[in-house]
Amino acid sequence: MTEQTVRIEGRRLRLSNLDKVLYPETGTTKGEVIDYYSRIAPLLLPHVRDRPLTRKRWPDGVGTETDPRQPFFAKALEPGAPAWVRRHPIDHSSGAKDYPVVDDLPTLVYLAQVASLELHVPQWRFSGEGARQNPDRLVLDLDPGPGVDLATCAEVARWARDILRDIGMDPLPVTSGSKGIHLYARLDGGQSSDDVSAVAKELARAIEADHPDLVVSQMAKAVREGRVFIDWSQNNGSKTTIAPYSLRGRTHPTVAAPRTWDELDDPGLRQLLFTEVLERMPVLGDPLAPVDEGHGPLRAYLSKRTAGRTPEPVPDAPHGAPAEEGRARFVIQEHHASRLHWDLRLERDGVLVSWAVPKGVPHTTAKNSLAVMTEDHPLQYLDFAGEIPRGEYGAGVMTVWDTGTYELEKWRDDEVIATLEGREDGPLGRVRVALIRTEGRGEKSQWLLHRMKTDADGRPQPDGNPVVARDHAGASDLTPLPETSVAGSAEPTLAELRPMLSTSATAGIARAAAERWESPWVEMKWDGIRGLGIWDGRRLRLRSRNGNDLTATYPELTGADLGLGDLPAVVDGEIVALDEQGRPSFPLLQKRMNLAQPREIEREAARAPVQLYLFDVLSAGGRDVASLPLRERRRALEQLTAGAGLPVVVPPVFDDVDAAVATSASFGLEGVVVKDPSSTYRRGVRSEQWLKVKHSRTQEVVIGGIRPGKGHRSGSIGSLLVGVPTVDGLRYAGRVGSGFGEQTLARLAEVLEPLRTTENPFVGVPAADARDALWVRPERVGEVEFAEFTPGGILRQARWRGLRPDKAPDEVVREQ
User: Fold this and answer.
1) What number of other Cβ atoms are within 10 A of residue 151's Cβ?
2) In a domain, 461, yes or no
3) Buried b / exposed e along 702-735 (16+ C-beta atoms within 10 A)
4) 283 falls within a domain
C-alpha cells in the first residue's frame, strides 16, 4: 500500500493506494487516474465550475469485460470529505443532500483519490448566493442503437448542427467516451430548464421527421435498433450529463473528449483514451472552450455597466486580458461612493480581483480590516480615476490612492498572502498583507485584511501610515484612534468580565490561519456554557458571558475550596456536564441552567454534576494579565491550578489542527477552537485570532413567536418562530418544531407566556407562517442545530437544543 501526504494549492491531502489497479484491462492505477485529473484540470474545471457534481465511484476498480464491477452512485458528499471541499444542498424527497462543487484542483484530486472516475453535472450552475440559475448550455446526447457506429452518430450530429446554427447557436461536439456523441451549445441564461428541454425535444423530433429511418426521439429502447436516439431529456434540471474531460468507468480508460468538427468527418472516428487526450492538450487546447466563454470572469462587471453611460472601461467580451510577463500589478482606489471605502485590486489571470475595504489597509499589525469581495474588474482599471455619474453602479468620485506591483506567496480560494510595493512617493510603501476569507464565497464574501508582523524573509515589519481619506480638496477627514485596554482589579467590574469571543470558521480556514501563526494552538470545544470565575482566595463566584450571576446555580463549583491558592484571580472557562461515557452533554446541562429553587438545584446537581474546564486567566494575584500573550497566560493558569483537582479541569492543547479535528470527531465532541498563541485577551471582542470549528452546525436564535400545536401537541407549543438580528431588525429565520420533550415544552410555555404581545417582531416573516402565530417580545435566546441556511436566510432542518439564558438577543450573530 502506497500512501503520501501532499500539499496542493495550499490544501493538505492524504493520497493512498496509488498503485492500486482501477482498470485491469490496461493496468491503469489510481496514481495514473490522479495524474490525469491533475493535468487535465485547466480544461475540465471551467465546464464543471459552480455546478453540483454527481459521481460514479469504483473503489475496487472497474473490473474486466467478463467480470465487470458495479459502481457506487454518489450524490451527497461523503462525511469524511475534507472540510474545505465546497458543497451546496439540494432538496430531495428523502431530505437535503450536500453535493460537491468542483472549483479547484485540490477538490478534483480528492475526488480522484476516492475513485470518483465519472463526474456528471447538470446544465445549470449555482449563483454566488447558492441559488439555482437557469441553464447556460443546451446538450443533445446522440446515442447509437444496436448496429449503429460512431461515424453514423457523427452524421446525425452534423444534421443537428445545421438546425442549431439556423436558430443562432453554434454547437460543438464531444465524443462521450462510451458509445455516442454529445453536442453542446451556449445559452444566455434567459430560459428555464423546462423551456430548454422543450426546444431540444422539438429539435430531436424535427430531425426524426426528416430522417425517420436513422433517427428516433422516443425513449423506448425497443425502437432504437439501427437508429440513433437523440436524448433531449438531459436538459431537464434534475438530469446530469457526463462532464467534458471526465473519465469513463469502462473496461478501458476512455474520456468524454471535446472534438473538432473536422475530426467528426473521419470515417474511422473512435472514442479516445485518457493518454490520447493528454497528448492533444498542448496542441488543441480546449475545443469546447467557446461554450463557456460567456461565463468569463468579467461577466458580472459587464452586467452592471453600460458603455457610454460611465467613464469606466467597458470591454467587449467577458474574458480577461492575456497574462503579461513580469511582476503582477495592483491598485488601491479611494472611492467616495454612497459610503467612503477603498478598493483593493490585484492582477490575477488577466483581470483585477477586487475587494472593497471600508477602512483601508490597516496601518498596524494589531488591527484587521474588513474586506468584501466584489466583481472582478478589467486590467484597464489599474489607472482609472474619475466620477461615476449618479444613478450608475458605484456612483461617486474615484481616485488612485496608490498603485504598484506585488510579490505573491499564496493564492487560494480562502487565503491570499502577498507583498505590495506602491509608488516611490505613495502612501502605502512596501507592506506584506494577508487576505483571509471568513464568510461566504465569491462576490460579497467577507474577508479580513491583515498586516503581517514580519516581511517575507521573517524580519519584523514596521507599522505604516494610517489610511487617511481626503475630500476633493485633499483635506484629511479620518484618522484612526488607538485601542484602549481595561485595567484589572481585585473586585472586577462587569466590563472587565466580558469574555473574549471566537469567530466561526471552517477547518480549512483555521488550518490556513494556524500555518501563519507560530506554534499553532488548538483546544477542544466543550459543549457547555461559558463561565467566568472570580476567585477571592477561598471561594469562586461565577458569572455568565452576559454578566448573570451563576454562583447559586452550580454549588459544586462555588461552595467548596477549589485549591486555586490564596490570592485573587479571574479565570475563563466552560461549565460542562458529562454523560455516562464521560462526554460533554448539552441536554444534561440544560436541566441545570434554568433552575432557581435551592431544592431543585440540589436534586439536579446530584443527578448531573458539572465540572469547570478552564482555558484562560484574566488576572492572577491581583495583577491583570490580559495583555500577555496566550502562551504566557497559559503558564499563569497552570501555576494557578497546580493544587486544584476535580471539579476543576485544565484540558490539554494540540499543536496540529487536523489531528485535533479528527480527535474531536472521534470522541463525539462539538469541535475545536484554534487560537493564535501570541493573542492577547481582548475583553468583549469577537476575534479572528480565535477560530471555532464545529462538526455540527449550531445557531443561536431569538424567539419571536409561537405556532400553536396540533394533534398530540394540541394545547401546547407546536413550533417556535425564530430570528437572527441584522441591521434591518430581527430577520426571520424559520420555524423550529423538533427536539422538544414534554418538560422542555412546559418550560418554554412558562418562559414565553409572560412575553406575549400583539406586535410582530420579525422582518420578512412569510404570511403562511404568520397566519396563526402568537407573538412574543424578542427577549429570550435559544440554540438550534441545523443543516444549512437557505439563500433566503431560513434555517433548514432546525432542531431545538435549548434555551440560552447566558446570552442576550443583541449578542446573537449569524454563524457561517
Assistant:
1) 15
2) no
3) bbbbbbebeeebeebbbbbbbbbbeeeebbbbbb
4) yes
Between the CA of residue 36 and those of 43, 120, 174, 279, what are the distances in Å?
12, 17, 18, 11
Q: What angle do CA 539, 540, 542 make, to 5 degrees?
A: 155
> With 50 as the cut, is the pLDDT of residue 478 above it?
no
Q: Which of 317-326, 575-584, 788-797 has the highest mean pLDDT?
A: 575-584
Output the domain CATH number for residue 150.
3.30.70.3300
Question: Which carries the bigger pLDDT value, residue 452 or residue 298?
Answer: 452
Task: Specify the residue for cell string 460611465.
Answer: 310
**What SS3 string covers 574-639?**
EEEEECCCCCECHHHHHHHHCCCCHHHHHHHHHHCCEEEEEEEEEEECCEECCCCCHHHHHHHHHH
Contact indicator for 310, 388 with CB cutoff of 8 Å: yes
Based on the domain organization, do 630 and 715 belong to the same domain? Answer: no
Q: Which residue has the higher pLDDT, 622 or 269?
A: 269
The CA distances from residue 527 to 77, 617, 698, in Å, are 26, 20, 11
Q: Which of 637, 668, 692 is the last residue of a domain?
A: 692
Q: Is 452 exposed, middle or buried (0-12, 13-18, 19+ CB in 10 A)?
A: middle
Query: Do 269 and 336 sit in the same domain of this protein?
Result: no
Residue 591 bears catalytic tag: no
Q: What is the pLDDT of residue 507?
A: 79
Q: Provide the CATH number for the domain around residue 557.
A: 3.30.470.30
Residue 162 near residue 185, CB atoms below 8 Å: no
Q: Is the peptide bond before 725 cis (omega within 30 degrees of 0)?
A: no
- Check which CATH number belongs to the domain holding 71 and give it: 3.90.920.10
93 located within any domain = yes
Q: What is the mean pLDDT of the chain?
A: 87
- Same-domain check for residues 382 and 444: yes
pLDDT digits (tens, 9 = 90+) for 122-133: 999 988 667 889
Of 359, 525, 675, 692, the active-site residue reads: 525
N-terminal to C-terminal alpha carbon distance within the chain: 38
Domain that holds residue 269: 137-239+256-294
Judge residue 547's burial from the number of C-beta atoms within 10 Å of its C-beta, 0-12 exposed, 13-18 middle, 19 or more buried.
Answer: middle
With left for phi above 0 and alpha for psi between -120 and 50, is residue 518 left, alpha or beta?
Answer: beta
**Phi, psi angle pair for 245, to nearest 5°:** 75, 5
- DSSP string for 695-751: SSEEEEEEEEEEEEP-GGGTTSEEEEEEEEEETTEEEEEEEE-SS--HHHHHHHHHH
Report the CATH number at residue 764.
Answer: 2.40.50.140
Integer Cα distance of 320 and 314 in angstroms? 12
C-alpha cell at 789: 441556511
Q: Which of 694, 693, 747 is nearest to 720 (CA)?
A: 747
Examine the domain organization and report whether 108 and 233 are in the same domain. Answer: no
Total count of domains within the chain: 5
- Report how far residue 94's alpha carbon sits from residue 54's, in angstroms, rounded to the nearest whole number: 17
In this structure, are 385 and 362 located in the same domain? yes
**Which helix (H) or strand (E) is 154 found in, with range?**
helix 150-166
Q: Characterize 609-647 residue by residue with b for buried, 16 or more Cβ atoms within 10 angstroms of its Cβ, and e for exposed.
A: bbbbbbbbbbbbeeebbbebebbebbebbeebbeebeeb
Strands 729-736 and 762-763, by their bridges, are parallel
Pair (151, 220) in one structural domain: yes
Is 152 found in the same domain as 89? no
Which residue, 121, 146, 168, sits at the end of a domain? 121
The answer on 728 and 585 residing in a single domain is no
Is residue 720 in some structural domain? yes
Amino acid identity for residue 787 in this structure: A
Cα angle vertex 572, ends 567, 578, to 5°? 115
